[in-house]
Amino acid sequence: MGTVLIIVFLILIFLDVPVSFSMLISSLAALLFEGVNPIMVGLETTRSLSTFYSFLAVPFFILAGELMNFGGLSERLIRLVKAFIGHHRIGLPAVTTVSSQMFGAVSGASAATVAAIGGIMIPTLEKNGYSRAFATALTACSGTTGALIPPSILLLIYGTLANVSIEKLFIAGIVPGILVGLGLILISVLMTKKMDIVKEKKADFEEIRKSVIGSFFPILLVLIIFVGIMGGVFTATEASAVAVVYAGVVGFFVFRKLRIKDLPEILVSSAKTTAALSFLIACASLFAWTLAIGKVPETLTEGLLGLSDQVVSLFGSDLSPETALKARKIVILVFLNITLLLLGMFIDAGPGLLIVVPVVIPISHAMGMDTGLDAVHFGILVVSNMIIGLVTPPVGSTLFVASAVGKTSIAKITPFILKFLVVMLFIQLLITYYPPVSTFLPSLMN
After folding, report:
1. Measured between alpha carbons, how far is 110 from 177 in angstroms, rounded to an integer?
2. For the chain, how are helix, strand and coil distributed in percent, rounded to 5?
3. Tens digit of pLDDT for each residue in 270-279?
4. pLDDT tens digits along 335-380
């Protein structure tokens, strides 16, 4: 059964069938092969979505992001960051990265972040002497940090499927997201040394004052979500509802950029995104159930554990039990990271998570990383790894969005992307093997 499921799924993916339909069709084929009624199983597994209280946060955060997009959030955040650091030689790349992080912290979506920030910053960067290919690559990689900084749809999906605290996952993603941003800024310094850069004029006090006042309400939303979750005032699901109400009030009555006539477009756009994601998760639920019945996760876990034991044995039999256990964990995480990176090169982060979470959960059990802060750490390293796939050819969705926004080819921006990937992979290793990077802030929560 498991063999039929995997073979059919891989064939459909190779034929460029959308991932959701590939999961659905391969699951039905495997169930029919096993003689199981696929209709009843499909109805039951997809119905189980309604039991996920935390999943209610998805449509709310999507709607909040749409409201903030229409409300002119990106321009205000860019103006704020530019007023403080835009006049430095590395100022505009830093503005791009920091603005992407701040915008991503509100919208929760990498593609939306790249489209909103890139549409403004790519022409500005080019005008000031940066190559368009560099600007596009930077925007693409910066946009991925929004998928780690709360509210993150990917972390929400992982927490829902793996039964890990979404609130702690949200807080755990902050430091890794900031580290990736800092890494992108630092490597930008090296990459732009030979470019003939024109510095921005230093902002005067009046411009700084206006930019701070203009960005006060968007930043306040981030603080409300952060402090509310950290302090245990509300859950991630409740925070999503707060975000919608706040975004609506600010957009209609403070910024006054939202109009009643905009609501149908906003609601339809949010509904389409939510429906597509819900259908994807429904198909993934059936796929995960079929994987479990076919004992695919157990088989892969046993194979990975056996392989890691063989690698550890190469270092000799004189290792103490504790040392051997630590070495085994290191080896497993190496193989896991490599596998997830390869998968992320061909499958988008969202669908990829829906596929891998049921498979990696038994691995986390085998390593003792399935409870408490260890489970949070494991979730962050899995999600951050899949996020790298957003900007890796050949199927990096954020890469294609950036290419369209920057009006340049994938081939031209790939050399810059590869340099940015070096620092992203380094941060990934740091997240993997130094747990406090992701567990320190959650350990402070009530």
Report:
1. 12
2. 80, 0, 20
3. 888 778 777 7
4. 889 888 888 877 777 778 878 888 888 888 888 888 889 999 999 9
Q: For 127-149, what is the mean pLDDT? A: 87
pLDDT in tens, 292-351: 777 777 777 778 778 887 877 777 666 677 777 788 888 889 888 988 888 887 777 777
Place of tokens 């209609």: 252
Rounded-to-integer distance, Cα 440 and Cα 78, Å:
29
Which amino acid is located at 121 in the chain? M
In the predicted model, is pLDDT for residue 159 greater than 60?
yes
d(CA 246, CA 294): 46
What's the full length of the chain, in residues? 446
Name the nearest CA neighbour of 440 among 380, 368, 399, 355. Answer: 380
Q: Which amino acid is at 104?
A: G
Residue 21 structure tokens: 């339909």
Residue 425 exposed, middle or buried by CB count within 10 Å (0-12, 13-18, 19+): middle
* pLDDT at residue 261, as a whole number: 87
- Tell me: cis bond preceding 436? Omega within 30 of 0 counts: no
Token pair 């996920």 in the structure block, residue: 52
Q: What is the largest CA-CA distance in the chain?
A: 73
DSSP assignment of 196-240: -PPPPPPP-HHHHHHHHHHHHHHHHHHHHHHHHHHTTSS-HHHHH
Structure tokens of 329? 């964990």
Structure-token match 């510095």, residue found: 199
Token couple for 301:
């876990």
* Stretch 157-177: mean pLDDT: 88
Among 268, 212, 223, CA closest to 246: 223
Q: What is the DSSP letter of 163?
A: T
Q: Are 109 and 397 in contact (CB under 8 A)?
A: no
pLDDT band at 54 (very low <50, low <70, confident <90, very high): low
For the chain, the structural domain boundaries read 37-443
Q: Any idea which residue has 């005008």 for tokens? A: 127
Q: What is the DSSP string of 327-379?
A: HHHHHHHHHHHHHHHHHHTTS-HHHHHHHHHHHHHHHHHHHT-SSHHHHHHHH
> Cβ–Cβ contacts within 10 Å for residue 149, how many?
27
